From TrEMBL:
GO BP term, example: cell adhesion
Protein name per the record: Zinc/manganese transport system substrate-binding protein
Source organism (scientific name): Kocuria marina subsp. indica
GO molecular function, one term: metal ion binding
Subcellular location: Cell envelope
UniProt family annotation: Belongs to the bacterial solute-binding protein 9 family.
Length: 319
């Protein structure tokens, strides 16, 4: 089962248009850059993001002119179910630019952002959901089978992050017009580095399927050449925060033992009795288990993190 991944051909032109049309922003921010007196980021553009994935990229684009702060920076916190605190609300209210993942992943952030703020929505900037919806409409019209819901974990699509950093530079340039070129130049540098990471992922040139405890790394694994064999019913149960039915779990375990499945992709930030059984089954079947996380581990930036993920996939497939 392919979860939320549509055909990649022609995507560059679609996303190019998306950068121009892009995210519908409601007006301009009425705030000034970090007008909170005495704060660590005083005098800088205040960017508040949902997770450290986007604060890292915003820091790279904004350089020394930006103070980027994530609401969630711990692997112990789940963005899907996170409940914002009054401190979070105040932080977002004072932000010059707000960055969320979108697609329902970090709904708390979407709810906190006001209509007058500069907002970067990564799902919207990526164009992936529009593309997926168009692809699904075509499939339904042609009598094709619908494979599942949109995969909102777009930060695992390195190409999409190039669109996101462009959008960040655009919004920072609107807040701080005199440094707009600085932000564009930084974004161009980051995009060049992301292009190198994307080439590394695509260079894996794998074949076969994978089972995933969650759709988290789906874009990266599919760019590496693999296809998703996870039963849709298993994915839906996990997304709903419940265990899969015994029959569904048995089907998943059976697929994991089959010759077409090359690895188990495991979200190490979420563990249940059923995911533990999948890990054990993968070990018994001599299938590699590749762990992924939703947030960037300490000491790495986004490019280094995705490079490590690609290296682990390539290494696992060589076993």
């Amino acid at each position: 089962m392919t979860v939320g991944r549509s055909v990649r051909k022609g995507r560059t032109s679609v996303l190019g248009a998306g950068v121009v049309v892009g995210l519908a922003l409601a007006g301009c921010s009425s705030g000034t850059a970090s007008d909170a007196q005495g704060s660590p980021g005083a005098g800088k553009i205040a960017v508040v993001t949902s997770t450290n994935v986007y604060s890292d990229l915003a820091s790279q684009v904004g350089g020394d002119k930006v103070s980027a702060t994530p609401v969630i920076d711990s692997s112990a916190q789940d963005p899907h179910s996170y409940e914002a605190t009054p401190q979070d609300r105040l932080k977002v209210e004072k932000a010059d630019v707000v960055v969320c993942n979108g697609g329902g992943y970090d709904q708390f952030m979407t709810d906190l952002a006001s209509d007058g703020q500069h907002v970067v929505d990564a799902v919207e900037a990526s164009g992936l959901q529009r593309e997926e919806d168009a692809h699904d409409d075509h499939d339904h019209g042609s009598g094709h089978h619908h494979h599942g819901d949109f995969n909102e974990h777009v930060w695992y699509d390195v190409e999409s992050m190039q669109m996101v950093v462009d959008r960040m530079a655009e919004q920072l340039g609107q807040v701080d017009q005199q440094n707009a070129e600085y932000y564009r130049d930084n974004a161009a540098r980051v995009k060049n580095e992301l292009g190198t990471v994307e080439q590394k992922v695509e260079g894996i040139k794998a074949s076969g399927g994978y089972i995933a405890t969650e759709p988290l790394p789906g874009y990266l694994l599919q760019d590496a050449g693999l296809h998703d064999e996870t039963p849709q019913a298993f994915t839906e149960a996990i997304d709903a925060g419940s265990d899969a039915a015994p029959a569904v779990l048995n089907d998943t375990l059976g697929l994991l033992k089959g010759s077409d499945v090359k690895l188990l992709a495991l979200n190490k930030q979420t563990s249940t009795g059923q995911t533990d059984r999948l890990r054990s089954a993968a070990g018994a079947a001599a299938k590699p288990v590749v762990e992924f996380t939703e947030t960037i581990p300490d000491g790495l930036n986004y490019q280094q993190w995705m490079t490590q993920n690609a290296d682990r996939v390539a290494h696992g497939l060589q076993k």
